[in-house]
Amino acid sequence: MGNADLKLLYDIMVSYYGCGFKEKTKLRSVSDKKAMFAYIGRKLGASYRLIAEEIGYMNHSSAVHGEGLMEDLIAMDPSFNRQLNEIMDEYEFRKFAGILV
Known about the structure:
Blueprint: H1 6-17, H2 28-43, H3 48-55, H4 60-76, H5 78-97
């Protein structure tokens, strides 16, 4: 898995967005968060399988699709890039400071 802490990443994203996103739904607001989670998880070195298990995807192929979707969204909408950077900064800060939850 590399050194990715997916539970920490999920907690940071819940705090950032103000809501959880593990439920099974096709709502865009939830699917974008899941895609962001998959994208960041892969950047941190987590496997698709572990990402899928943590976020409630049906299988690893959903994590693959989510990662690709986020790459497209980042290219089209600068707000996704800002969100990505803010979440990654918080993740790196908590890992460095030893704040795990």
